[in-house]
């Protein structure tokens, strides 16, 4: 008994579910293309009457988005650099050995992974203030956010390293390489894709970092795009087409990267996320 | 000295170096602040003592003040609602979707992957979009619900005290659902197919197969997903400033947002630290469950 | 002959687990030594200790007269073929072959020429530009071999290199590895759990169990004169039969459980319990007066050989003729008494 139409039926249901689930994204883009009066139409229009993109350049200049986005990029790049440089080696060691010290290390990293940023922000702010780091607010945010991002990175990259057979490294040692040489010429190239995916994930999540930046960076010239968005967002906002246009400019690069690398990201996550 | 460098190139020195650098960084940026946080919760911290480490000891006065605060029980209630219903919604919907996408049909994994966009989006943007969707007079959710006949009059999701916390819950379910689905999909995929075939030959129907094979085989996954859900929900912050700012009248304030408000809006760092220490106990409880449920994988 | 590899009183602990217990071994230059034993016996640990991949807890290890304890693998000048082959997946066959040469600063042209030469001997010439994933199991095995021989090292170490191949290829590679060893005049240490591999390839076999060397010697010496019951049972296929028996008061008669008596060609301690070991291939169905009898419980035939098993499962007999018997038949069996091995029932030691 074969029912060849069933897979296609399931596909149709899946597409419908995806449409419902992704509706908020659609609504963001649609709203951003509506005029200031159309957004308050009752009932709302599900497709803009006149597509009006003039809000984009307007928001870009009025909200000095180039400054905010540049700061977001700087912060995300800093966080990613620290996380990758420190986290990769740590993940490698935790993948290579099995003993009680590694268990303790892993346990403490899992513990650090669960600390909410809202818990950490108070002591970090006070301590940064005492050490004078608040005078370099972006650096301070990078350090704090890197510590937040690193545990997750280490756990995922460790799973990647565990897929590199130990024998390959041993073969390199017997062939005449040192530990350092074998790590760079054999282990790292083979784990490159996994590390890259995790680095991209780290970049994307720190590109949207909000709480540390909001609490630590006072000067608007140094704030990232998330704080910039919060500046005209609140329970009583009415400027919805600007807010949605701002949001669209902010997330479209992230979404584009995600859709392009979707397969890799998902498989990287599925192999490591639960380990 | 030569031996030392030889150890770095050929021996465990290399490993120790790699792990130590990362650990020092993590201890400095996460471990010490954590301890400092606990310390501050027992101190008097104000604008004059903010810059010094030695501050007047306050005993448990901060804890007493926090518990006696008029909004304490309201915040506790909100936190419980937020955590419980966010987790329940994310888990149930995530599980249903995971089961659905475990069926064999063209494009299953690609479409499932698309769901994950919610996970990579900045929380503040998600909050902004939902804030607009949930808006009272012009929000699209009210229109849809009215056309479906579910509600008659307009619901002021964000400004009605009876609904404000639920507005954030809805947004948070949307935000966390995809990650739950992904983790549960991994667990589902790890169940060998022939178990189902054997059960089918033994005469189990689809419902019985779910109860006798899927659920027991997924025990550790479910444990991990639920504890990660608890941790993730307690970490959720960005939605609050974006949607309700805790209002109206604290009816949507949860512990993590309250703690931040104490420190950064009222500049009462001691109380902020105190609330976060109380939350930390909850988080540690969740992580113990998490570590226990993933232990076999940690040990491999 | 000089010892190429010398191990004296090697100990290895993993936490509370004692993996190698006071192991001493001399490996002569140019010899092919097989380390054989059941899994977990320490043979791989011993091999990896020679390579420097494991640090030994105590004892001394020297290669070509130089003490190697604590020296990292790259300074030991040895080559190793791994069970999984451990080919670098991101390098072509040629790059895999020349990796060690490049590390030792050999020039590009010279390395290329060397690789071509090795590829010639191992039959890989056509495959040099390919990646490991594009090769069959046998071809990968050859690359792993080629990578070892290209350097002309002081010793070759093999860690169960044939266990991932199918049976036919395994038999062929056995011969090729041995031929290569003879041609290069190399010193080889070969770890396997398959005693047939050890017997057919090696000139010196080391049988290990629980971190101890039980016996070492030339393959046929091990077969003919196993020092204990473990070695006797491990070497030889099908495995040796063991029956509990008694020595009569005269000291030259073996009394079986059934009461049947076999005269021994030598004097042993009288009136004692023994375990008698008899190889299945030394038992024959008697034409003349039998040594003892048994009832056939099972007959298996591979075509070339027939295996008869007694009804209590204790004895097996292999003959090259087809069986003209049936299950349930009681047959007389004879054995040359000189081929009966006697062991102490408690210690398992040869008497």
Automatic annotation (TrEMBL), chain A:
Gene Ontology terms: biological process = transmembrane transport
Q: What is its main location?
A: membrane
Instruction: Provide the alphabetized UniProt keywords.
Output: Cell membrane, Membrane, Transmembrane, Transmembrane helix, Transport
- Membrane-spanning residues where? 7-29, 68-94, 106-128, 140-161, 182-204, 243-261
Against Gene3D superfamilies, the record matches this protein to:
MetI-like
**What InterPro entries does the entry give?**
BP-dep_ABC_trans_perm, MetI-like, MetI-like_sf
Q: Does the keyword Cytoplasm apply?
A: no
Return the GO cellular component terms, semicolon-separated. plasma membrane
Q: Enumerate the PROSITE patterns for this protein.
A: ABC_TM1 (PS50928)
Q: Where does this one sit in the cell?
A: Cell membrane
Q: Does the keyword Transferase feature in the UniProt annotation?
A: no
**The ABC transmembrane type-1 domain covers which part of the protein?**
69-261
Q: How does it sit in the membrane?
A: Multi-pass membrane protein
The text of the family note is: Belongs to the binding-protein-dependent transport system permease family.
Q: What is this protein called?
A: ABC transporter permease
From TrEMBL, chain B:
Q: Which CDD domains match?
A: TM_PBP2 (cd06261)
Annotated ranges, domain ABC transmembrane type-1: 76-290
Topologically, how does it sit relative to the membrane? Multi-pass membrane protein
For whether the record's keyword set contains Membrane, the answer is: yes
GO CC annotation: what is one? plasma membrane
As for subcellular location, the record says: Cell membrane
Protein's name according to its UniProt entry:
Sugar ABC transporter permease
Where mainly found?
A: membrane
Gene3D superfamilies, per database record: MetI-like
Q: Which domain of life is it from?
A: Bacteria
| Signal peptide (residue range) | none
Q: Which residues span the membrane?
A: 12-36, 80-102, 114-133, 163-189, 210-231, 269-291
Q: Which family does it belong to?
A: Belongs to the binding-protein-dependent transport system permease family.
- Any one biological process term the GO annotation gives: transmembrane transport
Question: Which species expresses this protein natively?
Answer: Devosia soli
Q: Which UniProt keywords apply?
A: Cell membrane, Membrane, Transmembrane, Transmembrane helix, Transport
UniProtKB/TrEMBL annotation, chain C:
Q: Which InterPro entries match?
A: AAA+_ATPase, ABC_transporter-like_ATP-bd, ABC_transporter-like_CS, ABC_transpr_MalK-like, ABC_transpr_MalK/UgpC-like, Mo/tungstate-bd_C_term_dom, NA-bd_OB-fold, OB_MalK-like
Q: Which UniProt keywords apply?
A: ATP-binding, Nucleotide-binding, Transport
**Which PROSITE patterns has this protein been placed in?**
ABC_TRANSPORTER_1, ABC_TRANSPORTER_2
Which stretches make up the ABC transporter domain?
5-235
SUPFAM superfamilies in the record: MOP-like, P-loop containing nucleoside triphosphate hydrolases
Q: Where, per UniProt, does this protein localize?
A: Cell inner membrane
What GO cellular component is one of the record's annotations? Answer: ATP-binding cassette (ABC) transporter complex, substrate-binding subunit-containing
Q: Which domain of life is it from?
A: Bacteria
The answer to whether UniProt assigns keyword Secreted to this entry is: no
> What is the predominant subcellular site recorded for this chain?
membrane
Q: Does the keyword ATP-binding apply?
A: yes
Q: What is its membrane topology?
A: Peripheral membrane protein
* One Pfam family named in its UniProt record: ABC_tran
Listed under GO biological process in this entry are:
carbohydrate transport
What GO terms are given for molecular function? ABC-type transporter activity; ATP binding; ATP hydrolysis activity
Give the protein family: Belongs to the ABC transporter superfamily.
Which NCBIfam families would you find in this protein's record? PRK11650.1 (NF008653)
What name appears for this protein in its UniProt entry? Glycerol-3-phosphate ABC transporter ATP-binding protein
| UniProt source species | Devosia soli
